[in-house]
Amino acid sequence: MIRQAIGSKWVVALGVVSVVALVGAYAALSHHQHQVNPDDRTIPTWSQLKDGFVKIVEVNARSEERWLVVDAKATGKRLFLGLLCGIGGAMLLGMMMGCLAPVEAVFHPPLALLAKLPPTAMLAVFFVLVGTDTNMYVAMIAFGVLPSLAQTVYLSVKDVPDEFLYKAYTLGASHLEVVWNVVFRQVLPKLIDAVRLQLGPAMVYLIAAEMVVGDVGFGYRIRLQSKLLNMDVVFPYLVILAVFGFTMDYALLKLQRKICPWYAYDK
Amino acid sequence: MTSEAYKDRMVLTIKGVGHWFGKHRVLHDVNLEIVRGEIVGVVGPSGCGKSTLFRAIVGTHPPRGGEIRVCSGEGVGALVRGPGRDRGIVYQQYSLFPFLTAQENVAFGLMVDESSIPYRLLMYPKWRKMRAQHMEQAAEFLERVDLGHAMRLYPGNMSGGMRQRVAVAQALIMKPEIILLDEPFGALDEATREELQCMLLNLYLENLDALRQNQKPPYTILLVTHELNEAIYVGDRVVGLSQYWDWKSEGFDACPGATVVYDRTAPVELPGGERKYEAYDRQRHEIRSTVFDPPAPVDRRKAQTFWEELADPRNRQGVLQ
Q1: I want to staple A90 with a disulfide (CB 3.0 to 4.6 A). Which of A150, A224, B9, B27 is the partner?
Q2: pTM check: above 0.95
Q3: Closest partner CB to A171 (pick from B113, B117, B156)
Q4: What residue numbers bound the domain in which B104 lies?
Q5: Closest Cβ–Cβ partner in B84, B95, B155 for A170
Q6: What's B156's domain CATH number?
């Protein structure tokens, strides 16, 4: 029946089966490909993947750097700064738009337009405005996530029932206390949900930009190694990206449960 | 007898209040004087402006015409210009902040009233001490509404009745001059509703005790309800707002808005006593035929006899003695 719950053991078992099926399908595909062409590098075998992984973690003879370390540092820094600016700006803007009608009137129309513009299409604009260093990536991620995050915050603020605000005022709260102690607390779990949803797009914008103009980073390395058909390097990078995204998402979910325990009951 | 005899005991004075939204007239010339310690049941047909009147009293939507004053001591009282902590409110829905536990909800008012954000940030050690006191007080109030066991529960984990009890405690802890209950028990089952009615009557009992000790009765309550029995049983006075009054005789071409058409005393009941709803038959019928479904437009002053009734000492019951 629709929405009928299943036992937790079943949930775990089915989850394990789906991962095993994915790994098994890859192994079968790789095996088949290597039977056709024993020198194939497009769908590497497990041993080729292991060699690829060793290649990215050990010091490279030519650059004398560990690829994974330098790429992770560069991509991580860009992603962290971009998300920080995007989330901070969206929080501020969304809260102000939801609480103050003049700010809403000024920012709502441009935000609705900008939210529809793919940031990767604006790459040239960022290129011109902020150069090609870290600032460009940060600007692109921030610009990419800010409009939709700000709209989420703004709509969540609008969703806060008037009764909560009136009640807070009758209990003696100031305007700032109503914003901080009532509106923000109510909006926080929805903001975390929205950030979880924006993690994927933020990584897409960054990897795409790194592929186009980067000289270091995950996107740069994937593009370079793809051109050389070194899929034994590309696949580990993809797995690391997936694990990183999953870990971030899980950490945010845990954070939400920790700081907003009421949200699960309220939903 | 007029309200003059109770002049020093007035807590809420509503004079000539009118309200409208564009061309839609909601309230017209509403006049009401509430004596400290009363529980007043406010009834009226849907759309007659009960909630609008409450919003005007709370101060979130000040009236377009007339004035509302809340008196905390002597004198005419302060004009209501916006929300303030001298008026508490309990709503039917959204009565509690969902992100706070029962205890934190009750302590919320103390927090925002006795400290500020800079104080809480910059004087953290002092704030922690103050917070502990607030939580202790909140626990006491929750015990009073029989919810000592539910202090750490979030509203999402509570039943409707528990939520409304916490909401009442949240309003009571601030010791407001008047507490407005906007259909607080509307969504509850009959048994829970009766429990909460008893809780209100216990507050009335505390008012009587305070009067006996020559103190100010601590709780004045305005209760909006759709249940006539509830208004009569819990209230010591029933006020009816209605749009079905004879506005033509006052020279209007169209209804200028709802107004008070019924204002009479109600029997004073004690908590735990037998509920004799059949004894309310006459008053229920009276309210229905004046406020809800009059056979013809009514003279709005005809059933506004509260102050005249008090001229007879036998009618001065409860806190009105």
Answers
A1: A150
A2: no
A3: B113
A4: 87-175
A5: B84
A6: 3.40.50.300
